Amino acid sequence: QVQLRESGPGLVKPSETLSLTCTVSGYSLSSDYYWGWIRQSPEKGLEWIGTIYHSESTYYKPSTYYNPSLESRVSISLDASKNQFSLKLISVTAADTALYFCARERRQYPLLYYFDFWGQGALVTVSS
Amino acid sequence: DIQMTQSPSSLSASVGDRVTITCRASQSIDSFLNWYQQKPGRAPKLLIYAASSLQSGVPSRFSASGSGTAFSLIISSLQPEDFTTYFCQQSYSTPYSFGQGTKLEI
Fold first, then answer.
1. What is the pLDDT confidence band of residue A58, given thresholds at 50, 70 and 90?
2. What is the predicted pLDDT for the residue at A57?
3. Which of A58, B32, B75, B92 is the most exposed place for a label (fewest CB within 10 A)?
């Protein structure tokens, strides 16, 4: 069974960097799925942050896709040896306070594009 | 960016009722529409993908239809565990976007 678990600080100061890690069990990050971050807040609802993809069959660095509204501040990386992927969001403000989810994303032509497994979520509060 | 609008935002119903939740996209998204159920304090759970395909393990009382800009989620006979919040999500193009949610209440 695929399981995802977010970890990281629950409190971040304004202007600092939010860092979260998602540990995946039951499935290899280097297989044919994508891996994403989504956040949820009362103000903005559910918001897609970005996605990363890495395949063992390629020698290229992982491909990343970001929400343009966050692209200047966000980066997602992947450590295949630990079966983990991570989120970094710089220069945070109170507006970045949210429940952060990691999820497995399927992208398969022609119509299989969805998030099928999610972590339980990590609440991050931005406050001094 | 594609905007997703759900209606109603909340809905009162009873056990055994048939209910319909609608979702509209600001532009055509073909059949790239997914439905999720979210219980308080839990992650969203995939119910329906590609507008009308039932995810494995989801009860058959859930069904969905639509294409283009108009979509519906139907629960044919509400069970007590169905009283929670539902979201639609478009996967036609990034940035992916979600509806604001429909809370189903007794």
1. low
2. 65
3. A58
For the CA atoms of A27, A30, A34, A40, the dihedral, rounded to the nearest 10 degrees, stands at: 60
Chain A CA closest to residue B31: A111
* pLDDT of the residue at A120: 95
Is the CB of residue A82 less than 8 Å from the CB of residue A23? yes
Give the nearest chain B residue to A5 (CA atoms): B43
Q: For residue A80, which phi and psi values (nearest 5 degrees)?
A: -65, -30
A43: left (phi over 0), alpha (psi -120 to 50) or beta: alpha
Cα–chain center distance at A16: 18
- pLDDT beyond 90 at A109: no
Torsional sign, CA B54, B58, B63, B65: negative
Residue type, A47: E
Output the pLDDT for position A62: 83
- Peptide bond preceding A110 in cis form (omega within 30 of 0): yes
- Tokens 């859930």 map to which residue? B62
